[in-house]
Amino acid sequence: MNFAAMSRKDVPQGRNGKHNDIVKKILADLERVDDTGALKVPLDELPAGKEKVRSALNRATRKKGLTVATASDDAYLYVWNERS
Predict the structure, then answer these.
(1) In this structure, are residues 26 and 39 in contact, taking their beta carbons and an 8 Å threshold?
(2) Which domain covers residue 43, as residue numbers?
């Protein structure tokens, strides 16, 4: 064999990408923001640019069944809950 074998029950079953920490923080804060509020996340605190964090946030919110919207300017990523 070219590679080591292991039991399937020991295989990790989650994906914790490099954006996991910032996405978890954004989602936790979104739970605390009222319907008229938005988060203002400084772009310089994002690990790899707003596009990649937006994509990771989109994947996480779809998985949780949440609907959020985003916008950005030169300094901040704005995130808010979209509720019907």
Answers:
(1) yes
(2) 18-81
